[in-house]
Amino acid sequence: MGEDEPRLLLLVDRDPAQVRLVGALAARAGWRTHAESDSATALAYLASDETESPQALLLDSMVAREDSCQLIGQIRAAAPSLPILFLAQSASPLMAVEAMRAGATDYLMKPIASERVLYALDSSVHADVRRDELAPLSEKIDAPLDFDMMIGSASNFRDAMARAAKSARGHTPVLITGEPGTGKELLGRAMRSASPRAKAPVVVLHTAGMSAGNLESALYGHERGAFPGAFDRRIGCLQDADGGTLLIDDIERLPPALQQRLAKTITTGEARPMGANHSFRLDVRVIATAAEEYGLLVGHAMLDPALASVFTGASIHLPPLRERHGDIAPLARHFLALIGEQPGLRRLGVTDEALALLEGYEWPGNLRQLQAVLFRAAVFCDRDALTVQDFPQLFDLVGDALPAANINHGGGVTLFGPDGHLRTLEEIESDVIRLAIGHYRGRMSEVARRLGIGRSTLYRKVGDLGIDNAA
């Protein structure tokens, strides 16, 4: 296939409306689509020497239903390197996990979100970036909705949280900037949850993959007959969010004319649907996200001056994960706790060696990629904790750069051994006592008091464990 030739997506789906939707979304990203409605014809297509080889396959769970995993295995045998995207029902997350174990590359949940489809397709074909478990998966876990769930102690991150918490209490528009995957939408939702509009409607508009005309209609709505193909009246996001909050993802993707119109709407509180003869007043707080910092957006003319002025002094920048490496360990444990609550999965720990490995990577996909890597590793882990062996591609990339010394992330106490299994209680107890003796500089009375045991018991344990309390 030539570099400029559109890629081919093999879509295995029996729903004509969904086939049209996915085909339209894929076309915007430069993909062609070939659809098959059942498993037999899809396997025959892959086996034929007369058909074009697809660069990705999207399988709807409704095609094979309970036999989906068996079908994925057959597809994998027929095309070992073909990325397989599995489309699962929102009520069946366990099937999605089982699909990954059967050989699926990634999974998406219904109803289909346009930006997730585009992201999954893009990730599926960039083998140099994907490297198996390094492929950012679509979002699998419910988004945290409050500031207590925004994990991190890096100073630049805490500064951003302080600005966000202060801004959340107001009603003015806010712009959240940061690289893809840094958690901009999650922060926007947290701000909305902490705002006076917490119980009012919230509407999210993802601009990725939408044409200029569709964006205008999505924002403002349209009357019947407003343009060719407008067979029905549509209510826009602004009107749906009246009294509440509108989250606009990647606001810089809006065409300049639409940015000007939105700026006027925010300023005046008036909006007019496409093709309408009347305007209506609304009360909406706009929280927007953008991939570049405010200064770059203005300097590179990515924001219309009128819209830029709306966000003057009201922007919050989320730092990339590579600038907050000290937060990787607590973030990893936080994500593993959330992952462990998903159907078909369980709560896992992570060894210090594995955490050191995670900290050695630059994470171009930021939080989204870290969560995806942990999710993929957890799906296939059969031990009590993730180890270095659960991240083979990551070790190939950064393993040689890891420090020779053992890095400890447990405050001096390691719960898991390098093999991913819990250490013995005696070993852990010995480390706790050593840590306490060192922390309190050998003051055994204080050590005993802090550990909640008597001095005689402490001295007996020190002797039994062979601990030198003079160190």
UniProtKB/TrEMBL annotation:
Signal peptide: none
Domain (Response regulatory): residue spans on this chain: 8-125
Matches recorded under PANTHER family: DNA-BINDING TRANSCRIPTIONAL REGULATOR NTRC, TRANSCRIPTIONAL REGULATORY PROTEIN
Compartment(s): Cytoplasm
GO BP terms: phosphorelay signal transduction system; regulation of DNA-templated transcription
Domain Sigma-54 factor interaction: 150-379
Location (main, coarse): cytoplasm
Gene Ontology cellular-component terms listed: cytoplasm
Biological role: Member of the two-component regulatory system NtrB/NtrC, which controls expression of the nitrogen-regulated (ntr) genes in response to nitrogen limitation. Phosphorylated NtrC binds directly to DNA and stimulates the formation of open promoter-sigma54-RNA polymerase complexes.
Protein name per Swiss-Prot or TrEMBL: DNA-binding transcriptional regulator NtrC
PTM sites of type 4-aspartylphosphate: 60
UniProt source species: Croceicoccus ponticola
Any one Gene Ontology molecular-function term assigned to this protein's record: ATP binding
Keyword vocabulary terms for this entry: Activator, ATP-binding, Cytoplasm, DNA-binding, Nitrogen fixation, Nucleotide-binding, Phosphoprotein, Repressor, Transcription, Transcription regulation, Two-component regulatory system
